[in-house]
Design a protein that fits this description.
Layout (H helix, E strand, L loop, with lengths): L7 H19 L6 H20 L3 H8 L7 H8 E6 L12 E8 L2 E8 L5 H6 L7 H17 L3 E7 L6 H5 L2 H14 L4 E10 H8 L3 E5 L3 E3 L3 H8 L6 H8 L3 H7 L4 E3 L10 H19 L4 H21 L1
Helix pairs in contact: 1-2, 4-13, 6-8, 8-9, 10-11
Length: about 325
């Protein structure tokens, strides 16, 4: 387990329990289970206490935890017959975005998501989940396919933001993001989006302009990272804690503001502590939303989706 900075007291207790059990394994007849169980109980209580009152900055750290399940994990666990489709038919295939045809609860769907990778090699290959223009154009192609064949679309959002490199800008990064966002508003099929980790800037909005937007309990969704915001406003990236507080980027804040529609509870200690339970919770939530949207006419889906975002600003001003 990779412990976060604020989890250090927990790391000490769990480390002591593991040390006791390791000693028992190497010393026959040594009974430490009672002491280890007491430490386990203390650790569980501390874990509940820590995660009961996480600050926005701490939630940012949890959302970025390297051991949280990523897009590939969700696709492998929740979808069957996944057939990946590659390339934007224009320039290249962007490995930061994965998507294709699949079945969800035996229902044919199109699934699209950001993939960060889970080790050094795959993170470099996936560009840490930061998509280039060809990634968004691939998503547009897949959404067009879904619209043509009447397939619901499920998007899994987990990105620090779109890649800001020179090549990406030369190939029309902002235009690709804008067209992907517009395509979300145009398709006449159910569109469900889940923020499973980071939802950063336009790179996230390009996939998450959906009929229903769901967020995991400790995920974040914001126009800019706390570090980027602090650098702009205070010229000091170390003020990221204040920025995280001001940005209202937590799932709980965004639900109150009407930006998202549902918060999905995570296992105690975050999705990284029990990935399978977190994935199952996301699958249950997606299934419920798709059931609610099933049978709605294309015109109604498009109208409701557009109205959702038109109303968002007025509700925010009224609040």
């Amino acid at each position: 387990m990779n412990y976060l900075e604020f989890e250090k007291p927990l790391a000490e207790i769990e480390g002591k329990a593991e040390e006791l059990r390791a000693m028992a394994r190497t010393n026959d007849g040594m009974d430490v289970e009672k002491e280890a169980a007491a430490l386990d109980k203390k650790a569980a209580a501390l874990l509940s206490e820590i995660y009961k009152g996480l600050t926005p900055w701490q939630k940012c750290q949890v959302a970025r935890h390297p051991e949280r399940p990523h897009c590939r994990d969700y696709i492998e666990a929740l979808f069957t017959e996944f057939t990946p489709l590659a390339g934007d038919r224009n320039f290249a295939d962007d490995h930061a975005v994965m998507g294709g045809l699949a079945r969800f609860d035996d229902m044919p769907v199109v699934v699209i998501g950001h993939e960060k990778g889970n080790d050094t090699k795959s993170r470099i290959e996936r560009n840490f989940g930061m998509a280039r223009p060809e990634g968004y154009r691939k998503a547009i192609r897949l959404m067009d396919l879904a619209h043509r064949f009447g397939l619901p679309v499920v998007t899994l959002v987990d990105t620090p933001g779109a890649y800001p490199g020179k090549g990406a800008e030369e190939r029309g990064q902002s235009e690709a993001i804008a067209r992907s966002t517009a395509k979300c508003l145009e398709i006449g099929v159910p569109l469900v989006s889940v923020v499973i980790g980071e939802g950063g800037s336009g790179g996230a909005v390009a996939f998450a302009t959906a009929n229903k937007v769901l967020m995991l309990e400790h995920s974040i969704y914001s126009v800019i990272s706390p570090e980027g915001c602090a650098s702009i406003l205070w010229k000091d990236a170390e003020k990221m804690r204040e920025a995280a507080e001001a940005l209202r980027l937590t799932a709980q804040d965004l639900l109150k503001l009407g930006v998202i529609d549902q918060v999905i509870a995570e296992p105690k200690g975050g999705a990284q502590r029990d990935p399978q339970a977190a994935i199952a919770a996301v699958g249950k939530a997606i299934g419920g939303v798709l059931k609610d949207l099933k049978g709605k006419k294309p015109e109604k889906l498009v109208k409701d989706r557009r109205q959702k975002y038109l109303d968002m600003g007025s509700k925010g001003l009224a609040a």
